[in-house]
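User: Predict the structure for this protein chain, please.
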Amino acid sequence: YRLTILSQRGLRQRVLAYLSMQAARRKSASFSIPFSREELASYLCVNRSALSHELRQMEQDGLIRFRKNRFTLLTPLE
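Assistant: Here is the predicted structure, written as structure tokens:
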């Protein structure tokens, strides 16, 4: 799974790939992830502050909703 995620070009694509895989695994649009923000940034091989900024931007764009490590995908992803 990680190779698929890391093969994505941009930060948003990596985040969406990871979140959509987690949603598919749990068969739900709402789910918790096993990582803190720092651990998720490390897993995705990105800077933590860049990740936090992108998550906020994705929330403003209406793609996701989140609180700590609990996420909800607001749009169907393929």
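The radius of gyration is 11 Å.
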